[in-house]
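Supplementary Note 3. Input sequence used for the single-chain structure prediction.
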Amino acid sequence: MRVWTIFWALLMAHAASAAADTSASSVISAKLEACTLCHGAAGVSQLPETPSLAGQPEGFLQWQLVYFRSGTRKSAVMQPMAAGLTDDDIRGLAGHFAAQAPPKPGANGAADPAMYSVGQRLAQQNRCASCHKDDYAGAQATARTANQREDYLLKALRDFKSGARTGGGVAAMGDAVYRLGDDELRALAHFLGHFQ
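The predicted structure, written as discrete structure tokens, is reproduced below.
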């Protein structure tokens, strides 16, 4: 009789755990639907100045959602979207988008060879790869910039330069771009957006 009681208790505990997982998964699914309206069904954005999230490092995505939720990072769209997210929501959403295939080379059309070359030189001079890695795939709390939307990259670079956006921790984006003129920011965004 005692074995049956233990077995039944374990069976009920497993059923409750499965129900909780299903419930949590449906909550994340509902929140994913809201995300994909702007960031794309597979996390690859088709909207101007809206970043692709697919293939971004999970830590980077988590931190950005935390920054939006706290108001540290300003956005009229993202702050209200993130305000109600729990820590578990943030982990679930970040894990989902990090696991998606990132935009492929050529996703932003054909590169202009001269502009690409100028952007590549600027990336080398400013040691962009020291944080974003040699393949610009990012790592931990550092963004993937390879093949991100070019218009979004330009917006982000301008925001870092103006101080409208700051990095977290020891991020040095403001320092990295403050000396660059707008044409140089355009070239850098072009290089990263068309990285091969």
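The chain is about 60% helix and 0% strand. The chain has a mean pLDDT of 87.
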